Amino acid sequence: MSNANVQPLTDCNTTSSAKKAKALYWLGDDLRLADNAILSDISQNAQQLMLVYCIEPQWFAKAQYQAQYLGKHRLKFLLESLQALDEALSQYGQQLHIMYGQAQLCLPYLINTHDITRVYRSDHGGADERAKWQAIKQQCDSNTEFTTFTTQTLFSSQQLPFELDELPPSFSQFRKLVNNSHFEAVKDEVTWLPPMVALKSQDKLIQKWVAYPDWLPQTHMLSNVFSGGELQGKLQLGSYFASNLAHSYKIVRNELAGWEHSTKFSPWLANGCLSARQVLSALHEFESQHGANESSRWIEYELLWREYFHWYAHKFNNKLFWFSGITGKKPLTSFYAKRLQSWKTATTPYPLVNALMTQLNQTGYMSNRGRQIVASCLIHELQCDWRYGAAYFQQQLIDYDVAINWGNWQYLAGVGADPRGSRRFNLAKQQQIYDPQGQFIKAWLGSVALQQNSIKLVSELDGVDMADWPC
Ligand SMILES: Cc1cc2nc3c(=O)[nH]c(=O)nc-3n(C[C@H](O)[C@H](O)[C@H](O)COP(=O)(O)OP(=O)(O)OC[C@H]3O[C@@H](n4cnc5c(N)ncnc54)[C@H](O)[C@@H]3O)c2cc1C
User: Fold this and answer.
1) Predicted complex ipTM
2) Are 343 and 450 members of one domain?
3) Ligand 1 pocket residue status of 237, Cβ below 6 Å
4) Is the shortest distance between the CB of 92 and ligand 1 below 6 Å?
5) 36-61 pLDDT, tens digit each
6) Whose CA is nearest to atom 49 of ligand 1?
7) For residues 295 and 172, what is the distance between their CA atoms, to the nearest angstrom?
8) pTM of the shown model
């Protein structure tokens, strides 16, 4: 894959009018100024601008599959990212308005009372996000233009070398097809943004930046190595490629612990503090200076997995959340409250799984291999419906991305894009390979737990009789 200087993205669902717009930009997973096609368009085609982000109360309520949409780690990273964007916008005389309410209720009010003529939004693969966009459109004046741009993926839908309906059923076919495709060059940060749309006195909801409303869970006590925001994302991007780590990525990427064993770009990518194109361009720059090898190429390979799952979500829409996934075959699993609870609370009979879940619960992050191990455990050892696991990840992961998360869970449950059917990991073998000395377990569960658990380990990993397991 290579990048090319092509025309601005054409993934816009409207034609732009000659008259400059009074614009509202509803932000989502695109919390950055650089490489942002929407801001580039706004700087050319709008005369006034209102930037809005909606924090929705139902994100904090218990939702489907016994999890809430947004847990404390995600919230911390999100608030940091929003605050960083607000600060960066102040240099342009702009402000990010945070609304606490449902987007489909707040935004039509703002659009209609402020005579907004054009509404911008990043094109999103999530079914809920798309439904909200439609609901907002329906409540607004028919003269208001609704414009979407691709900001999250490497390609726009028009740049894909096939129609979305023809997205290949497996990643390897997808990769072959896009291998020689060009992705658009990274856009510079805009140099100018239009002035703010003046607020009206009745805009109670948005009159001031409410940094921390009482009803939000307290997150400031959390210690977390990841800090949200575009600047922090750029720092991580810069520091990763300033080192030689990319040349050994493939060898160490499956390690369970260690900051340097993978890129750690995912939380910034998921919140849009970094774009996938920025990452790929930085990788290509690194390769042009220091040479490419199998490891550095593997980072591109993983970014293509990300790309694949994004278009997969676009294509399959609600099927992303179906028990039978995209295959129509129902797995032989069910809902077992106590098993699920033991998995979430890190009290299964499997010490490695418990250590990994403790890591997730305490930090909001887990390595890719760790995610595969705990997902396989929930599905194949505890025989639980995979959607409960996906929903718990949704709550916990600071890099939660609807397409990647649900796509990976489907894959492991055997109802997704895996031509080989489901993937069951032998937990004892995984522990032998990735934690032979028990150091990871010790780090997260303590040495006493390691000794106690390792006594249980041998017998229980050899064959837990699930009939004896409390349900
Ligand atoms: C069950 C399960 C759920 C997951 N949920 C998410 C999620 O919600 N959000 C998320 O970003 N990743 C998810 N992943 C993918 C992967 O685990 C993380 O992207 C990765 O661990 C993040 O760390 P990193 O940035 O250091 O990754 P690196 O190994 O450095 O990879 C670089 C980038 O490639 C992409 N990538 C890596 N692995 C995958 C993968 N398996 N599928 C798609 N893209 C990938 C990510 O954007 C990542 O940042 C999930 C994996 C599994 C098995």
Assistant:
1) 0.99
2) yes
3) no
4) no
5) 999 999 999 999 999 999 998 889 88
6) 266
7) 18
8) 0.91
